[in-house]
Amino acid sequence: MVSTTFTTLVPLAFAGFASALNKGLALTPQIGWNTWNTFACNISKHTILPAARAIKAENLDKYGYNYVIIDDCWQADQRDPETKVLPANPDKFPGGLKKVVDEIKNLGLKAGIYSSAGVMTCGHHIGSLGYEDIDAKAWSDDGFEYLKYDNCFSQGQFGNPKISFDRYNAMSQALNKTSGDPILYSMCNWGEDWPWLFATEIANSWRISGDIYPSFNKDDDRCPCTDITMCDLQGFHCSIAKILDFAAGLGQKAYPGAWNDLDMLEVGNRGLSLDESLVHFSMWAMVKSPLILGNDLTKMTNQTRAIIKNKHVIDIFQDPKGSPAVRL
């Protein structure tokens, strides 16, 4: 469990690093769509651009959905031997990522990219650890405005908040050096090393738990934690109810520009009933978690449309005061 001494010293230890929040980003939590829950590694421009067009066709952008995030498996097999820039997989993105970003921007939307604060990503592709400045500049040059930054293959650089802070701050500083549009920084370190103690200084959002899966309240041994303040293995296959339990005590850690991230939405995916989907979406909105859709936007049911376009819920979510709901 994190010590009282460390908790007390965190603001002093990390003073002077609060630069991620000075760009006016995420004054309300981010809202958009991510490739992973539907497509996993089976992505290309032929899956991403139809989703972007569906956001416009469904008028989702009118409700705030403006980020189109390319998750893992976009990468080529190696970096450029001279520049060390990591290009996109030429079979998936034959014109490179910039052409895809340009098409997304032409729709009036913003493009996001993925990497990991490790030598490899969770999908066993090349990561960004040690290449933060190079990768941040390349993404900025391509026009990206969002980074989801994962936590796989970190070379043992975890175990206390200061170690994790240093690893994630390297990318935060690299993003702040870029000269293009500001890049929203979404830390995805699964709640490891209590990011709510330090991530407010360097990121716009931080994951609080292991990965979600489309179950409302089914226990799964692969998500072993029962108390996030005393958790050595975050795991995955965490149910919606369990993640909400984790979030219950963290509302005071979030504020405009810095948010607890309960993971991507499972609304519209198999595994949830209509009532469970309604509660899932509404509670994510009420606790001010980012609302990142993970369903196939080109094949939505009317029930899914009704949930994700609920203006009353989204108005609560986008309350400019940014006050998360608390459990009584």
TrEMBL record:
Any Pfam family the entry gives: Melibiase_2
Keyword Cytoplasm (UniProt): no
Reaction(s) catalysed (UniProt annotation): Hydrolysis of terminal, non-reducing alpha-D-galactose residues in alpha-D-galactosides, including galactose oligosaccharides, galactomannans and galactolipids
Signal peptide residue numbers: 1-20
Transmembrane residue ranges: none
GO biological processes: melibiose catabolic process
Keywords of the record: Disulfide bond, Glycosidase, Hydrolase, Signal
Molecular function as annotated in GO: alpha-galactosidase activity
Keyword Oxidoreductase: no
Gene3D superfamilies per record: Aldolase class I
InterPro entries, per the entry: Aldolase_TIM (IPR013785), GH (IPR017853), Glyco_hydro_27 (IPR002241), Glyco_hydro_27/36_CS (IPR000111)
Entry's EC annotation: 3.2.1.22
PANTHER family documented for this protein: ALPHA-GALACTOSIDASE MEL1, ALPHA-GALACTOSIDASE/ALPHA-N-ACETYLGALACTOSAMINIDASE
Family recorded in the similarity comment: Belongs to the glycosyl hydrolase 27 family.
Name this protein carries in UniProt: Alpha-galactosidase
